Structure formats: structure tokens, C-alpha cells
TrEMBL record:
Organism of provenance: Hymenobacter saemangeumensis
Keyword Disulfide bond: no
SUPFAM superfamilies noted in UniProt: Metalloproteases ('zincins'), catalytic domain (SSF55486)
Pfam families per the UniProt record, alphabetical: Peptidase_M10, TIG
UniProt keywords, alphabetically: Hydrolase, Metal-binding, Protease, Signal, Zinc
Presence of keyword Cytoplasm: no
Domain IPT/TIG: 218-316
Boundaries of every Peptidase M10 metallopeptidase domain copy: 437-500
Source taxon at top rank: Bacteria
UniProt-recorded name of the protein: T9SS type A sorting domain-containing protein
Length: 711
């Protein structure tokens, strides 16, 4: 039988009773947050945390370096800590104590886990550490540690206002009372090992008279607009007075959506658009400093003179799209999904321990169908898998935890998103979702339904949390918006089994329409909009262009439109047929008998019940057949663009070189192509009239050439 954290917690009940009085005294002084679960976190008892931690210390994160485990299946991040003081245990190395966290970034590969501690260099706080339990970690000269309970094993400091915060508690001041309360739990006094100059400087600045810094404090009078999304470069305009002639060391902060606004999230350096004495414009981040999303609430502005003001009014973040950060930390990109199964979508597989219980699988399927039938996300449940492993293995697994792969203490579940990236023709990084795994605690007090969870029984509705975690899989971040599925918290007895149209659905639809239903250059083919599972267009001699498509479990669908271009211009589409949708699953076909010479494109438009549309990627077809050769058209070239019909053997970058009749290089261009037939547009502006040779070479070293005439 699997023994989870909760079973171990029940076994520890007598011990916990002994320390309950100390725990109560400690939490009475700390300011408790709302009783909601933060995503899928339950509050961790401070006394249990102290008892389980082998080492408790006050420290600063010096660095972060990600690495693969021995099996090259999981990423971890190694941090060195600068230790300032000791509250439990002993430590010899105060400059390089090694701490390991789950997830990381290495090159163009990333693994991000919900409900898991992420640390950045410069962060300070109190760490409750236990030995790192994972196999395959590199050998170190000393013991490897990890925060007990992951996110709840760290009390983070906010030096700007001398406060501290963990997921369910806030501390109004970092001072003698704070350390004394910790000492009451540990049973030993705090031992200072070396000074903490950053904390001292921040505290001194707060104690300095405000008039010595600046004579007039800033004020905010208006925020425009009042509603906007995060993570899509939406710009907030802050109107007021005395912001300073330039930003300098000033900054703007938003409420942290991950903790319901208990803490603040700074905008990144790249988010600032303009800064004047009366007007500041800043992009609203879904991955601000610390990779936290901006949430609804007030906005705080700090001037270059370090004077601070909060807005009297609030903003509403209607949805937040996940952003992926480059390893260098200087680029944020919205990832897209790619098709990874034979139905143009993504298949999840139930693990052995998850499939053994029918009720969890049924609830999870209901949650999946809710997203599929309200956003068009092409998800399905595939065949089960014997393994329970959560790892980078090419399988999208849904599993319960077990003794060998247990979730951190008081974590009911989490989603792991595996990202990979490539460089497009403009040398810009494109990230895509390579894989998604979900893991749930096997002994949590879940109500699997279809009956509703009951608050009096402290039941947690499994369909609600599955719906929320699938929102993360669809690449949505947390909100502070009660009633939305992506609201940061859930309470026992709360049943949220439908998506909010203005937030959950709108955000999910934007991810799909702008990213996942389009071919963005790497990772695989664009997803087909559900319920579509197949679409093809081919030339049939003596018949015309035959278009075929199929659907599965039709929902969120009113009808189709077959659309065609008259040439290579994929900005101008003509509707040639409007077949109606069927019921359940369908097989469809349409024959276009109006043959066009040369190359042109077809696509299928899906009309949704809400009046919106989704489109398949443009499919090229020629009247010569299904496997056209390389061809330049028009040839001779009269305008400023040359079009190359290019059947690429694999996706990737292609280098094009244009030589004149004397063999002199005249033009060098690099662009990206996807596997299959492409129509690539090359600029010939400035080329003199005459004969030219176009040569190309792809990333696999294959190439070719064609002649063309420039008129």
C-alpha cells in the first residue's frame, strides 16, 4: 500500500500534539492568509516543519545552475547559499551550502512545476531544509539539501518593506520578535554567523526620514484601462504626479496572483514603455520578477528617490497567459502547443495507479472535455501506460504519487510543463510545449464525483482541481478572480466545474488561435482545432481538388467553410463551400472542380457557436499532383518578390544564396521551413535585370539550385 505524506502525518499525531502549543503561539503573531488552498497546497503546520527540517537557517541565494539527473529525465536547479544565521542544526560552509530545487532551464529545454519553489539569485529568507531525496543527483563534497514542503519550506524576505512571507502566512517585520518566535519553535536561540549587509541597508533606508530623500511624495490618480490581460504585452498607463523625470531605480509593482495579492510582483526591466513625472506606461507581466503573475488589485509605484505610493483604484486582470523565460533571462516568449498524436492534438495517458481507480479517471475526463468543448483544445485520453513515472519521456502522464516519487509535504497535486525551443529564421527563440505530466496525492481527501464536494467534510472536489491544472497545461497562469477556474485558490467544498467565459475561455482561446493552431517554426505541426482530427487536400486527375476531413465527438461546432486562395497570397481567402456539421463523429469530403494552374492553398474554417472562427493551417496544392518538385514562380520575376515551391524533408532553417550570371553572390537570405510543401517568399528588390541562380542549403546539409530571370 502506498504511504503518502498524509498517512505519515496521521502517524505523527502524538508528536504534533506535543508541539501544538508552540505552533499556536507562533502563528498567532504571524498574520495568517485566507484559509483557501493556494492552487493545490494545504497549510503546513509550523511545528511539523521545524520537526522535519534537519537544518534551519537564514540565508541568501547566491546563484542558480540547472542540470539533468543521471537518467536525463528530470531537470533540477542547484543553488549555493550564503548563510547569515543558524536556527537549527549546524553548518560548516557559510558561503556555498548546496540547495536543490525541482525544475530548471538548460539551453533551450525547460521544466516548470506548479506548487514548487523557484528561487532566484539575491533572494533572502529562512530555509527549512531536509536532505534531497531524489536519485541520480550529482555527487557533492557535502550533503545536498532541499526545502521541506518545497514552497512552504521557505519564508521569503521583502527587503523593500522589511516584511516576510510564505504561502499561508505573512510577517509584519523582520526583527527581534520574528527571530524569537522561530527560536520558540526550534528550542534553540538564533546564532549569527556573519552580517547581512543587504538587510541592514534596507532597514536603515526605511528608518530614514522621508524628507531627506525627496520633498514631495508621488500620488496616483488613475489607472487606464481598468481591465486588461497579463503576459500579452498589454500596457497599463498610470496617471498621477511627482513620479520623477525618469525612472532611474524606480519601479512598478502588481499584486501577486499566486498568493492572492498578499505580496507584490515587480515588472521586469523590459516591461517599461515610458516614464514621465505625470505618466508611466508599463506592460502587465504574467512572469514578473520571480516568475510570478500580476493579479487584480491595487498598483504600487516607487520613484527613483525610493518614495512609494499605492493607487486608490484597482485593475482587473481578466486572464494571464504563461510566458517562458530564456536561460539568459532577457527574453519572454509565449509557448505554443504542437500536434503529437495522429489526431492533430495531444494524448494523455493514465498511469497504472491512476487507472486502477475508475472514479478519478472519470472526473479527469470530464474536466478535459470541458476545456475541449469550450476552447477547442485538441486533447484526448489515449491508452494507459504501465509506468507511474513523472519524467521527460515523451509521454503525457496522469498519475498518483507513490513512495518512490512522493509529492512534497502538503502538496495535493501539480502539473509539470516541459518546454523546448528553437531559433527561427530571424534568430528569435520559439518555445513550444513538448510534454505535460500531472501528479496527484493518493491519500488526499478528494471527492471524485459526480457528487459535489462537501465543505463540512473538508472534501476537495477533484474535478475542480483537474480543471484548474488543465488550465495550466493550456498555458494559463493564476488569477485573483473568485469564480474563475484559474483563481489562485480553492476551498474544501468549493465546486467550480465550469469555465468563466471572460477569463478562462477567453484566455484559452487566445493561446490556441494566436499560437497553437499556427505553425510557428519548430516542434511539430500546428494543432488541429477540436473536434477536427484530420484534414487533407489533394489533386485527383480528372476530378479536381479533393478535400477530406474528419471529427471526433463533435462539440463547440456549428459548421464548416472550405476556403481557397487564387494563388500564393495567403492573406486573401475565398469561401467555396459551407458544409454543415454532423452529430457525434463525422467523415466529410468536398471536391473543388474549379482547377487552378500552379500552386494555391486550401484551409478549413470551423465556425463556433459563439460566432467565432478557428482555422486549419494553409495546405498547398498544385494541379500537377501531391508531390510537387522545387519550382520558382513567376519565372521570369517581374515584381519585388520571388516565390519558391519548396518541399522540405525536415523542419528547420534554410539558407538561400542568389548568384548572378558571372557567379558573384548578390543576395544572402535565411528563412525557416516546415516539413512538407512550403511556399517561401524571397525579396529580389534591387537585383538588376538578368539571369540568376538560386542555391539553397538546409540544416541537414542538403541543397539544390534553380535558375530564374529577373525582368
Amino acid at each position: 500500500m502506498i504511504v503518502s505524506f498524509y498517512a505519515r502525518l496521521r502517524q505523527a499525531a502524538p508528536l504534533l500534539a506535543l508541539v501544538a502549543a508552540l505552533s499556536t503561539a507562533f502563528t498567532a503573531r504571524a498574520q495568517p492568509a485566507a484559509p483557501d488552498l493556494h492552487c493545490l497546497l494545504l497549510p503546513l503546520d509550523p511545528a511539523l516543519r521545524v520537526q522535519q527540517a534537519g537544518l534551519i537557517l537564514e540565508a541568501e541565494v547566491r546563484d542558480a545552475q540547472s542540470f539533468w539527473d543521471a537518467g536525463h529525465r528530470r531537470l533540477y536547479t542547484r543553488h549555493r547559499l550564503r548563510v547569515f544565521s543558524l536556527l537549527k542544526g549546524s553548518v560548516a560552509d557559510t558561503a556555498g551550502l548546496v540547495l536543490i530545487t525541482e525544475g530548471g532551464r538548460l539551453g533551450l529545454t525547460q521544466q516548470t512545476l506548479t506548487n514548487t519553489l523557484h528561487l532566484e539569485p539575491g533572494q533572502q529568507g529562512v530555509f527549512f531544509l531536509s536532505p534531497a531525496p531524489w536519485p541520480g543527483l550529482p555527487a557533492e563534497s557535502g550533503r545536498l539539501w532541499t526545502p521541506f514542503g518545497s514552497e512552504q519550506g521557505f519564508i521569503g524576505y521583502s527587503l523593500a518593506d522589511n516584511t516576510a512571507r510564505e504561502p499561508f502566512r505573512t510577517y509584519p517585520s523582520i526583527g527581534a520578535a520574528f527571530y524569537q518566535e522561530l527560536a520558540q519553535l526550534t528550542g534553540q536561540p538564533r546564532r549569527v554567523l556573519q552580517p547581512n549587509p543587504a538587510l541592514r541597508a534596507a532597514q536603515a533606508l526605511l528608518q530614514a526620514p522621508q524628507g531627506s530623500l525627496r520633498t514631495k511624495a508621488p500620488s496616483i490618480s488613475d489607472l487606464q484601462p481598468a481591465q486588461l490581460p497579463a503576459g500579452v504585452d498589454a500596457v497599463l498607463t498610470i496617471v498621477g504626479n511627482d513620479f520623477g523625470a525618469s525612472r532611474g531605480s524606480g519601479f512598478v509593482e502588481f499584486k501577486n496572483a499566486d498568493d492572492g495579492g498578499a505580496t507584490w510582483v515587480k515588472a521586469r526591466e523590459s516591461d517599461y514603455v515610458s516614464w514621465t513625472p505625470t505618466r508611466v506606461q508599463v506592460r502587465v507581466p504574467s512572469a514578473g520578477e520571480g516568475r510570478k503573475p500580476a493579479g487584480s488589485g491595487r498598483v504600487r509605484l516607487t520613484t527613483g528617490g525610493q518614495l512609494q505610493t499605492e493607487s486608490p483604484g484597482t485593475i482587473s486582470i481578466i486572464y494571464a497567459l504563461t510566458n517562458v523565460e530564456s536561460t539568459e533571462g532577457n527574453l519572454l516568449a509565449r509557448p505554443n502547443h504542437v500536434a503529437s498524436n495522429d489526431s492533430g492534438g495531444i494524448s494523455f495517458r493514465f498511469s497504472a495507479n491512476f487507472r486502477a481507480q475508475p472514479a478519478p479517471g472519470a472526473a479527469w475526463r470530464r474536466a478535459l472535455n470541458t476545456w475541449r468543448c469550450q476552447t477547442g483544445m485538441n486533447w484526448r485520453v489515449g491508452s494507459s501506460i504501465a509506468s507511474n513515472a513523472i519524467a521527460d519521456d515523451g509521454q503525457n502522464v496522469v498519475a498518483f504519487d507513490n513512495a518512490s516519487d512522493a509529492l512534497p509535504a502538503q502538496v495535493l497535486g501539480r502539473t509539470t510543463s516541459y518546454y523546448s525551443g528553437c531559433y527561427d529564421a530571424n534568430r528569435q527563440v520559439v518555445f513550444y510545449v513538448k510534454e505535460i505530466d500531472m501528479q496527484f496525492d493518493d491519500a488526499a481527501n478528494f471527492q471524485f464525483g459526480p457528487a459535489l464536494a462537501i465543505g463540512a467534510l473538508r472534501q476537495i472536489d477533484f474535478e475542480t482541481v483537474a480543471l484548474h491544472e488543465l488550465g495550466h497545461a493550456q498555458q494559463l497562469s493564476h488569477l485573483i478572480q473568485l469564480g474563475a477556474v484559474m483563481h489562485y485558490a480553492v476551498q474544501p467544498g468549493r465546486n467550480t466545474r465550469s469555465l468563466d467565459p471572460a477569463s478562462d475561455i477567453a484566455g484559452g482561446r487566445r493561446v490556441l488561435r494566436e499560437r497553437s493552431f499556427r505553425q510557428l517554426g519548430c516542434g511539430g505541426a500546428a494543432m488541429l482545432p477540436a473536434p477536427l482530427i484530420r484534414f487533407s487536400a489533394r489533386f485527383a486527375g480528372g476530378t479536381g481538388i479533393v478535400l477530406s476531413w474528419a471529427t471526433r465527438d463533435e462539440c463547440f461546432l456549428s459548421g464548416f467553410a472550405v476556403q481557397r486562395t487564387n494563388g500564393v497570397d495567403t492573406t486573401a481567402w475565398q469561401t467555396v463551400a459551407t458544409p454543415g456539421a454532423g452529430q457525434g463523429s463525422g467523415q466529410y469530403q468536398y471536391v473543388d472542380q474549379q482547377l487552378r494552374e500552379g500552386l494555391h492553398f486550401y484551409r478549413l474554417r470551423l465556425q463556433r457557436p459563439d460566432g467565432s472562427f478557428d482555422y486549419t493551417e494553409a495546405t498547398p496544392v498544385t494541379s500537377e499532383g501531391e508531390s510537387p518538385d522545387f519550382a520558382i514562380f513567376p519565372n521570369p520575376v517581374q515584381g519585388e518578390r520571388l516565390y519558391l515551391q519548396y518541399p522540405a524533408p525536415a523542419s528547420g532553417a534554410v539558407l538561400f544564396l542568389m548568384y548572378d550570371a558571372l557567379g558573384r553572390l548578390q543576395r544572402r537570405t535565411q528563412t525557416s521551413a516546415r516539413q512538407g510543401l512550403n511556399v517561401l517568399s524571397l525579396n529580389v528588390t534591387g537585383l538588376s535585370p538578368g539571369m540568376y541562380v538560386l542555391r539553397w542549403r538546409d540544416e541537414q546539409g542538403q541543397g539544390g539550385s534553380r535558375k530564374f530571370v529577373r525582368l
